[in-house]
């Protein structure tokens, strides 16, 4: 039904009729052929020869869903095969490692495999996060957790464990989503049966943590922009924070990589590092360069040249890990100085994350369309943007509720 061939490697979806299951059905597998050797990868689906023959044109919901699941398994193996053949590095061992089958069917092994792949792809932030989650999981359980042990009950106990460690609702949600991502991949690879999958409606549902209400109002932004401290360093980091706010709430990881070549027709154009490897469509963000932004560039930036970075944080020779460390260090320095400013102004704690939330919330307060805000932030869906604006929406509801009994006006 599905077939792909390149550079001597063939990937096909097949009904393995060599041996029937006890229920009389046969397993559907993805067959990979290379140098006349065949390897089979399970899809977790079983069918009769009759249904297999008519499935490609079937319109019934049951067969359509099975076809879609088989297609997902095929696409996954095809993608990994294609990447390996493009590099001239194909082997069954490497393919199995990429699919998470070379390291054993434990949650720990699949996490380690994901971390290894992320490191190879130089996605250091995600790599560090998955490493952080598996360390937490191993503190809770052990260094060898069979996939079948990750049940609804196990997940509920792990959730309680994280709460006992005083983790925030957002952090707990992120830990559980990382585990879900690993199990999703294991299910696609046939390492985990559908009946063993613990997430979903009627099973374990991840509670989305609502972020803290950290957006500032326009008057507070004005206070920060006009703040005059005693230290030139404070002025420097204040300006960087203000630039982040004006530049669509840009992340520090993206800020340090900006070059003069990113400036096109008076706008800064960039793709978020966070989504460039995970989004199907390359989404470019555009931020109009305001007078304030131009002044900050002139005050603290490198000389204007297409090959130059906008700001002097990188030299272009850093490894992915070195770039991550520089990003973390710069973020800490900005946040430290902004905490000083926040305390002096009576605003409270201010961070680079505050700048991003404030950009979105102030635009919403001023009547900007949520679709425009979402595109400006580089979000892939409006749900993520809605999370940013959750505090604002509640604030509006509270204000409107008071109007119902405001008898004095």
UniProtKB/TrEMBL annotation:
Q: Known PROSITE patterns for this protein?
A: TYR_RECOMBINASE
GO biological process annotation, one example: DNA integration
| Ranges for domain Tyr recombinase | 211-403
Q: Which SUPFAM superfamilies match?
A: DNA breaking-rejoining enzymes
Alphabetically sorted, this entry's keywords are: DNA recombination, DNA-binding
Q: Name one GO molecular function term.
A: DNA binding
Q: Which InterPro entries match?
A: Arm-DNA-bind_5, DNA_brk_join_enz, Integrase-like_cat_sf, Integrase_catalytic, Integrase_recombinase_N, SAM-like_dom, Tyrosine_recombinase_XerCD
Q: Record's family? A: Belongs to the 'phage' integrase family.
Q: Read off the PANTHER family from this record.
A: PHAGE INTEGRASE-RELATED, PROPHAGE INTEGRASE INTD-RELATED
The protein here is known as Tyrosine recombinase XerD
Identify the coding gene: xerD_1
């Amino acid at each position: 039904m599905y077939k792909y061939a390149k550079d001597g490697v063939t990937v096909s979806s097949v009904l393995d009729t060599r041996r029937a299951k006890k229920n009389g059905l046969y397993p559907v597998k993805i067959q990979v052929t290379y140098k006349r050797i065949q390897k089979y990868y399970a899809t977790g689906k079983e069918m009769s020869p009759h249904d297999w023959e008519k499935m490609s044109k079937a319109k019934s919901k049951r067969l359509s869903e099975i076809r879609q699941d088989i297609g997902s398994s095929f696409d996954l193996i095809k993608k990994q095969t294609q990447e390996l053949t493009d590099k001239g590095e194909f082997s069954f061992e490497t393919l199995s490692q990429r699919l998470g089958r070379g390291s054993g069917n434990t949650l720990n092994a699949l996490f380690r495999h994901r971390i290894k792949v992320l490191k190879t792809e130089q996605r250091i932030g995600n790599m560090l996060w998955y490493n952080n989650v598996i360390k937490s999981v191993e503190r809770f359980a052990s260094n060898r957790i069979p996939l079948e042990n990750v049940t609804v009950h196990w997940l509920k106990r792990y959730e309680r464990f994280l709460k006992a460690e005083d983790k925030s609702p957002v952090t707990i949600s992120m830990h559980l989503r990382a585990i879900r991502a690993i199990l999703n991949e294991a299910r696609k690879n046939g390492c985990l049966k559908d009946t063993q999958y613990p997430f979903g409606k009627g099973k374990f549902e991840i509670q989305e943590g609502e972020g803290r209400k950290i957006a500032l109002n326009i008057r507070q932004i004005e206070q920060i922009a006009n703040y005059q401290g005693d230290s030139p360093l404070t002025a420097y980091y204040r300006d960087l924070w203000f630039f982040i706010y004006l530049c669509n709430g840009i992340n520090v990881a993206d800020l340090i990589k900006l070059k003069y070549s990113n400036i096109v027709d008076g706008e800064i154009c960039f793709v978020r590092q966070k989504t460039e490897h995970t989004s199907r469509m390359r989404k470019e963000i555009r931020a109009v360069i305001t007078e304030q932004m131009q002044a900050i560039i002139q005050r603290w930036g490198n000389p204007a040249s297409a090959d130059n970075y906008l700001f002097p944080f990188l030299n272009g020779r850093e490894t992915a890990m070195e770039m991550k460390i520089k990003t973390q260090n710069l973020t800490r320095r900005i946040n430290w100085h902004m905490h000083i400013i926040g305390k002096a102004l009576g605003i409270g704690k201010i961070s680079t994350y505050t700048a991003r939330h404030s950009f979105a919330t102030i635009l919403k307060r001023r009547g900007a369309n949520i679709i425009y805000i979402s595109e400006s932030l580089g979000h892939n869906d409006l749900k993520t943007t809605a999370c940013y604006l959750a505090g604002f929406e509640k604030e509006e509801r509270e204000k409107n509720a008071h109007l119902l009994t405001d008898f004095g006006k």
